[in-house]
Design the sequence.
């Protein structure tokens, strides 16, 4: 084990949930472990058996690995208490995955480590509960109804002005999300839901979509960047591109930052990362979903490029372990082992001074025969990362959820405008040859 000789004196990091066996999640895990080890933090990773087995190569960098189901209520906290009673030490508890955030909060509370209140994390994980809390505090919110049956949804549609959005109460990746234009389309929308559990119907918000990426340092929310989103044409809401920092007037940016930081305080979040989605409408900011983690779709890599010197995970470890006296703009002084570069020294601004963009391939459905121009794109010096997620012989499905996208190109540039144009240019230069 890389840090066995320091176990008695070094703080230890418990990383709950590990990674899902997909490249995005594995990349996050590798970066999180590298930035922990750069700080001399021994790491213990827990997760479900099948996911640990599928990500074994990345887990080789961990000091210990244990099978614990983070989706089972209370299981991780009970396991951690047993380990602490046996003499193991956990000074910080962290998770990369959305579905592990409740387990992290429960575990941190159980063992006395820094963390968010479990009730606050449960609230933001339950979309309608988060909507109610924000609306009660005076934030603009679309009206929403938790529905158990089609009759519940029909009643809400009948009593409100459309269009509406039908979505699962607790899911990710645009799974089961669709636009409903009228009551006649409700049966088809309900068919798209992933299971028979209660679901949500909410008013559609007409506005440009953004997300806010940031961290909570010393309990204070600090915005790192606002990300502009591009989504596929309704009725589905699959994200096909992100650009940061969003090019917004100063007044709009300031208002977004003000509302997001106030909302996080209202909801009771006090540590870790955050990713808050919102709409900018003619009437102002309307807050969407709130997450106690970094955004997906490679936003962690975009941040690491656009904010020079930022260590997206190391900064959070330092805060949880009280290793630095944070000002508005400080971060750790170590150099990470991979990705993200050298951390800025004391006083370095945590703000985006370069541009980054990711754009996804969304070719027409069909059986893939060949891909042309791919190797040329991969060879470009401004490409930070690129992947294809389909191979010849496989089927490209209609675009209904994030998993239906065919790959992506992530680029860095001197500013957001150049990043946006370059990502689009590279994606459009690749041809997918298909048969029906």
Sequence:
């Amino acid at each position: 084990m890389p840090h066995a000789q320091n176990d008695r004196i070094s703080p230890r990091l418990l990383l709950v949930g590990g990674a899902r066996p997909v490249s995005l999640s594995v990349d996050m895990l590798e970066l999180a472990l590298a930035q922990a080890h750069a700080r001399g933090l021994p790491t213990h990773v827990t997760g479900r058996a099948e996911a640990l087995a599928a990500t074994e190569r990345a887990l080789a960098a961990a000091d210990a690995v244990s099978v614990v189901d983070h989706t089972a209520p209370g299981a991780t906290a009970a396991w951690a208490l047993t380990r602490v009673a046996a003499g193991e030490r956990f000074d910080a508890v962290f998770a990369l995955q959305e579905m592990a955030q409740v387990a992290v909060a429960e575990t941190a509370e159980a063992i006395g480590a820094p963390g968010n209140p479990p009730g606050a994390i449960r609230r933001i994980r339950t979309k309608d509960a988060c909507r109610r809390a924000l609306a009660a505090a005076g934030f603009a919110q679309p009206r929403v109804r938790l529905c158990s049956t089609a009759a519940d949804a029909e009643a809400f549609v009948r009593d409100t002005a459309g269009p509406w959005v039908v979505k699962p109460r607790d899911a990710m990746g645009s799974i089961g999300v669709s636009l409903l234009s009228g009551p006649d389309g409700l049966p088809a929308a309900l068919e798209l839901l992933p299971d028979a559990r209660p679901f949500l119907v909410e008013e559609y918000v007409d506005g440009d979509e953004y997300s806010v990426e940031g961290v909570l340092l010393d309990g204070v929310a600090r915005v790192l960047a606002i990300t502009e989103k591009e989504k596929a044409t309704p009725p589905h809401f699959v994200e096909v591109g992100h650009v940061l920092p969003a090019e917004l007037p100063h007044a709009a940016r300031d208002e977004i930052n003000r509302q997001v930081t106030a909302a996080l305080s209202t909801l009771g979040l006090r540590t870790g990362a955050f990713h808050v989605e919102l709409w900018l409408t003619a009437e102002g900011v309307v807050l969407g979903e709130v997450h106690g983690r970094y955004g997906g779709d490679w936003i962690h890599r975009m941040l690491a490029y656009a904010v020079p010197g930022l260590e997206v995970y190391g900064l959070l470890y330092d805060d949880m372990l009280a290793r630095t006296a944070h000002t508005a703009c400080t971060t750790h002084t170590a150099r990470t082992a991979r990705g993200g570069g050298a951390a800025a020294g004391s006083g370095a601004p945590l703000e985006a001074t370069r541009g980054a963009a990711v754009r996804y391939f969304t070719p027409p459905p069909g059986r893939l025969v060949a891909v042309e121009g791919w190797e040329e794109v991969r060879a470009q010096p401004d490409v930070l990362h690129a992947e294809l997620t389909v191979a010849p012989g496989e089927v490209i499905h209609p675009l209904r959820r994030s998993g239906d996208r065919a790959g992506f190109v992530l680029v860095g540039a001197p500013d957001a405008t150049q990043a946006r144009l370059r990502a689009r240019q590279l994606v459009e230069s690749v041809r997918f040859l298909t048969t029906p």
